[in-house]
Structures are given as structure tokens and as C-alpha cells.
């Protein structure tokens, strides 16, 4: 018998993109009404620039994750919540692996990454309150050092599993509960930074996969002097350079992180140009293409 774990990753990718940044009001915030309409066609591209109507605040939250959260004692006590003796298993550069009776974890402070795995099996299946699992996941991340000021979209999902014997497959059933937590500053997502907290069918914390580097105190580029029409013209140039010739494009703010040797990152305000809806002519849903637009003033 073969067991396959399946997840609706294509649909999930679309959900994550949709949840990457909050909706921005279209009233006010424009330059003399330059964003009076939701979409404007330029050289074959139709832009939806509503999310650019108001630029994000050019400041960092006072409470931020720090490098201290990657200390072994904090990972063991606050993230895992285990009162056990951990033994070092391996070390490669700043990447280390530790193990206890019930847990293993790997960390790489240079990349802001932590992977936690429970070694022991879960208990009998129940029907846990998924809203409670989400709250528990957020509380665990808060305890480890991620403040609410750095948390943006939160998505709760189930992964499914089916057993296959020969050519016959059983009906898919719930395998794990996952909480996806996306990093955001000033209400704008930070590209590539997220935490995924997994619970088993009995509601037990089972796994955490985190990429959440500490944000440096200085060295950021958090503002732009460009207007929305100027950004759209840059988007045309960038999209054309990538071989695109036209279509509907949604523009949104985001931060791109640049790693430092300390393990911290600096943030640069950028605009993401998202093409189309992600649906192919055959009806298969896939993640839409996104091109980064440099919005630094000339």
C-alpha cells in the first residue's frame, strides 16, 4: 500500500498571493487625482494600481525579532516548549542541529531559519478547533520573539492524505493542520519571510519551518519619490525586458530583504507587478508571474 500526502498547492499559491498584502483604500493619497481609475492601459498593459494609492509609512516597528531569538535556550524553551536535555548533532558553518528525546531542530542564524520536528508519534485522531490551533501557533511565535507588529496575513489550511493499493485509491483524509504566517511591516509583506506551524490530528504541535531573519536597525530604503504613473512606466520597461508584451497587471507594494553578514537584513521598498490571474488556457491554476519593479528615485 502506498500512502501519498497531498495538498492543494496550486490553489494555496493563489491564496497566499491574495493574502500577501492588505487591501488599500483608493480614496485620497494620489497626486492630484493621478489614480482616479482602477486600471489604466499603457503600451498593451492594463494596470491595477489601487494598492499604490497610499505609500506605506517609512518606519520600522519598535518591537522586532532580534538575533537573540536564535539562541539555543530560547528555541528550546520558547519555540519548542520542551524541558529536555538537547545534544548537538552536527555543525556546518553557523548551521547547527540538536536533538532531545522527543525533538530535533536545525537552525541557521545567518539566514534566519529554524526547522523543528517532533520525533514521537501523535495521539488518536480528534476534531480539533482549527481557530484554536491558529491562536496557539501565533502564541508560540510570539513567545519565541515574533511580535504582532511583524505579522501580516495568517492562513489556516489542512493537508490531505490518500492511501493507494494498486490502482485503487482511498478517499483523501485530513493529514495535518498548518498555519501559514507571513511577515509584514507597515502592513506590507516582506518577500520570502514566513513561518509554517504544523499540528497533528490530535491537535499536538508537530513541526515548525521558519524563515524570519532579524531586521537591522539602520540601512533600509523604505520610501520612494515616484508617482504611480512613473511606477507604471517603469513597470512597462521591466515587463518588456522580461519578454512580456501585454496583459492585465496588478501592482502592489512589498519589501525585498538584503542579507547582512551579521544575520540581519535590510529592507527595500519595491513594487511587485503580478501578471494575469494564474489560470492557463487549459483551466489549470498556477502561480501568477511576478516581476519586481525598482522604485528608487533617479
UniProtKB/TrEMBL annotation:
Keywords: Signal. Residues 279-298 are annotated as: Disordered. Residues 1-20 form the signal peptide. This is Secreted protein. It comes from Sorangium cellulosum (strain So ce56).
